[in-house]
Amino acid sequence: MPPLPFRLALLFCGLMTSLVSAADRPNFIVFIADDVSWNDFGCYGNSGARTPNIDALANDGLKFTNAYLTASSCSPSRCSIITGRYPHNNGAASELHRPLPEHLIKFPSLLKEAGYYTALAGKDHMPQDQANEKAVWDEKRGTGVPGNNGGEGHWVDVVQKRPKDQPFFFWFAATDAHRDWNGDREWKEDLYGPKHDPADMEVSPYLRDTPETRDDLASYHNEVTRFDYFIGQVVDELKKQDALENTLIFVMADNGRPFPRGKTRVHDSGMKTPFVLHWPEGIEQPGSTTKSLVSVIDICPTVLSLAGVKVPEQVQGFSFANVLKDSTAPHRHYAFSEHNWHDYEAHGRAVRNGQGILYVRNARPDKAWLGPADSVSSPSHKDLQTANAEGKLTTAQADVLLEPRPKEELYDTSKDPLQTNNLVGNQEYAKHLAEMRNVMDTWQKETGDSVPENYTVDHYDRETGYIDSKTGKRIRGARPYGDWSGFDHKSSEINASGPH
Fold first, then answer.
1. Which terminus of the chain, N or C, has fewer Cβ atoms within 10 Å?
2. Is 466 helix (H, G, I), strand (E, B) or coil?
3. Rounded Cα distance, 417 and 432, in Å
4. SS3 of 420, please?
């Protein structure tokens, strides 16, 4: 055995090496807004938005213009992000509120094993058994604090009280801007500034420009602004701790805005996400914008690879760390999205390519593609229903209520950003249609996707949302869960990524 002084020297060297490597490893914060569309931050060109802190991160960081969710639905989207897997490969968790299988790994647990301090503060909505949860988070805090039910109230305190000798991973998830606008009731003008003026709102072409819709949008943007305020508070705290330079910040949302043709849609209005990254020590071209095509299942392998942690076989995404070094670097050829049950019966699939071609496949074409029940109950949706009965809707607005729908849709988003001109049957795009059909077929086969026979049916009223049109009362009771997509193929045990 070597003499004691030599062994102590080796121990000291090993300790110093681990301390240095820990200090060199980046920290991570994922900020997730609830129900916010890609173009509802100021840095994405929305003149009615007030998001100075997010805009500042974009000005010094990297803004993505082709980042896509795998689901425009709360828990399926979040579960997909945290496992790095497509929703139907997460088993029952592909449908709203349903739990992840026990065998699937939430990637922060791997960071925790590697010495990271991990914390979740705000909205969770990624159910799994409690034994798994203890392995994932060193600390968990909920959404509510006095005067703020937006999910952000614990964020700064978590940053302040973290162990200073460990790198950290924080999952900071707001309930802003989810209906029903508690931000209006809890507004603090001394912190957030004046409430948004309905007259300043940008009204989407999918909505009618009415006072009711503008009021609805103003309340929504109040919550987006509150989300932005607390991001600014966290950034200020990181600066005080001299920790901002080596912290990779993600700012994103789980799905599109809770308005007609937003949340639950596989079109850009539902599936495209704002995606702002900030990391002074790691982004080579600060202030740049990238058109690289990315999927949110790529977040998991990106974080793990940057932390020096092995990416597990279950992960279907791919690291885009190269885009942080070169904003022009290509990443994906294809990005896939899906919509399964969220309040209403559904089975929609979409694939996009890097040239802006979007292909949509709908296994429930006999039904209108409604948003969630709270959106169906909203003033903006009711206004569309009234105008539809009077024959006053534009093509974009009428699509919200269209029934039956096409089984297939094809769009050239570079020429048709609203995605209202279905090119299926257009001979100029016949090759594109054939390519995207083939890519979708391959992806569904390799990842074990399927259309369940015993599907989950509507839980809410299609005309009135939460309220039963026959009784006038709020709809309650157990959700009518059936089999999930890929159930017959045991898709939760399949790790294949399919085309990418």
1. N
2. coil
3. 17
4. coil
d(CA 109, CA 113): 6
Cβ(346)–Cβ(451) below 8 Å? no
What are 81's two structure tokens? 């992000």
Best CA proximity match to 480, nearest among 451, 461, 453, 457: 457
**Which residues fall within 8 angstroms of residue 20, CB to CB, at 6 or more apart?**
none
Provide the 8-state DSSP code for 484: P
Q: What are the tokens at 291?
A: 């058109």
312: buried, middle or exposed (CB in 10 Å: 19+, 13-18, 0-12)?
Answer: middle
Is the CATH number 3.20.20.70 carried by domain 17-337? no
CA distance 184 to 270: 24
Contact between residue 85 and residue 136 where contact means Cβ atoms under 8 Å apart: no
310 touches 109 (CB < 8 A): no
Residue 255 DSSP code: S
Whether the Cβ atoms of residue 67 and residue 250 lie closer than 8 Å to each other:
no
pLDDT tens by residue, 253-263: 999 999 999 99
- β pairing state of 294-295 and 334-339: unpaired
Rg for the chain, CA atoms, rounded = 23
pLDDT at 8 > cutoff 70:
no
- Examine residue 180 and say whether the peptide bond preceding it is cis (omega within 30 degrees of 0): yes
Q: Are 159 and 179 in contact, with CB atoms under 8 Å apart? A: no
**Model confidence over 142-153: pLDDT tens digits?**
888 888 989 999
Question: Would the CA dihedral through 36, 248, 123, 155 be positive or negative?
Answer: negative
Residues 6+ apart with CB under 8 A from 209: 203
The CA distance from 436 to 424, in Å, is: 11
Task: Look at residues 86, 127, 102 and name the one whose alpha carbon lies nearest to residue 340.
Answer: 86
Rounded CA gap, 374 and 479, in Å?
16
pLDDT in tens, 396-421: 999 999 999 999 999 999 999 999 99
What is the residue whose two structure tokens read 């209202």?
420
CA distance 129 to 147: 31
**Whole-structure pTM over 0.90, yes or no?**
yes
Q: What are phi and psi of 342, to 5 degrees?
A: -145, 90
For strand 348-353 and strand 357-362, is the pairing parallel, antiparallel, or unpaired?
antiparallel
